[in-house]
Design brief:
The chain is of the alpha+beta class. It folds into 2 domains: 10-113 and 128-142 and 298-312 and 319-336, Clavaminate synthase-like (Double-stranded beta-helix, 4-Layer Sandwich), CATH 3.60.130.10; 156-289, Double-stranded beta-helix (4-Layer Sandwich). It is 24% helix and 28% strand. It contains 9 helices and 23 strands. Mean pLDDT is 89; it is low at 1-6, 8-20 and 343-347.
């Protein structure tokens, strides 16, 4: 299997003092998602995490997300925390949302207006390669709202009717994206590249078709599996952007206006079954209902750090009032082709 699980090869670490696990306390009374861990003394989170990798890994595989609250992490200390919990940060490539890099490997969570809700999704599940872990940190807590919803994708999959799942297992999810100035992200921003040849090479290497459009735009298509298999536990998860990238994820009047102005083929993003057949409203409603039934909200406090196993847990954002500054690092590298278990559809 290629890639690094968690992005943290053991040989990378320098020796650190071994700290007792009792210096932090996991709180299992509030449910399983996320597991909340608090310090029992004046503990440096990066140092503790470096010395207690098996504990962190076990918590993450069981719960899917771990909230480290009360450690007082800030932007200056975050890179060391990310390295300890998830490994070296990965660049944000093949982008689907605007983000600002605020420190090396640390990005604003998403630069969307405060009144917009971001639906649940697994980071970059539409890509051939995707991060295995996410590390969020709250630098400024919102005055109101702004929680991060989470959903255990093992449980989301279990809630779905087998007939819905089987339709996706048969051929995967086809992702169609159009990049053009004034229409979502341009291809230059999405791929962080200005050379067409290098974009074409990236697409070829990552199992995507690329077609340049009149006016300088770019259209890509890719087929990815809808179900992932966790490398550590072998658990199956609902791991895709089928609902998130579908045109119906925006408000109905907006979706109708985009279809009228751009046509089906010109939408910024849309999803289909792998063979190109449309995904029906009933299936989309079932997927969104399964996410909703499994949603747990994380309300932020300044200094909180949220570690997410990207294969196991989907995340989003609630609207908020006041200032909210949450940053994120992506880490680890996995590919759909490298996941264990039965092969799912891949282009």
């Amino acid at each position: 299997m290629t890639g690094t699980w968690g992005g943290r090869p053991v040989a990378r670490r320098q020796p650190v003092p071994v700290l007792a696990r009792d210096w932090v306390q996991p709180d299992v009374s509030a449910g399983t998602l996320p597991l909340t861990v608090r310090p029992m003394a004046d503990v440096d989170l990066a140092t503790w995490a470096s010395a207690n990798v098996p504990a962190v890994d076990a918590w993450l595989t069981e719960h899917g997300a771990v909230l480290f609250s009360g450690f007082g992490t800030g932007l200056d200390s975050l890179p060391a925390v990310v390295a300890a919990l998830a490994g070296p940060p990965a660049p944000y490539q093949e982008r689907s949302s605007p983000r600002t890099e605020v420190a090396p490997g640390v990005y604003s969570s998403t630069d969307y207006p405060a009144d917009q809700r971001i639906p649940l999704h697994n980071e970059n599940s539409y890509q051939h390669r995707f991060p295995s872990r996410l590390v969020f940190c709250c630098l400024t807590a919102p005055d109101s709202g702004g929680a991060t919803p989470l959903a255990d994708c093992r449980r989301v999959l279990a809630r779905l009717d087998p007939a819905v799942v089987d339709a996706f297992r048969a051929g995967g999810v086809r992702y169609v994206r159009n990049y053009a100035a004034g229409l979502g992200l341009s291809w230059q921003e999405a791929f962080q590249e200005t050379d067409r040849g290098r974009v074409e090479a990236y697409c070829a290497e990552n199992d995507m078709t690329a077609a340049w459009q009149p006016g300088g735009g770019l259209r890509t298509e890719a087929i990815r599996p809808a179900v992932g298999v966790h490398p550590a536990s072998g658990a199956e998860t609902w791991f895709n952007h089928a609902a998130f990238f579908h045109v119906t994820s925006v408000a109905p009047p907006v979706a109708a206006a985009m279809r009228e102005q751009l046509g089906e083929a010109g939408l910024p993003s849309n999803t289909y079954y792998g063979d190109g057949a449309p995904i029906g409203a009933e299936a989309l409603s079932a997927i969104r209902a399964a996410y909703a039934a499994e949603t747990a909200l994380v309300s932020w406090r300044q200094g909180d750090v949220l570690l997410i196993d990207n294969l196991l847990v989907a995340h989003g954002r609630e609207p908020f009032g006041g200032s909210r500054r949450v940053v994120v690092s992506l880490a680890g590298s996995l590919s759909h082709r490298a996941l264990p278990g039965p092969r799912q559809a891949v282009a």
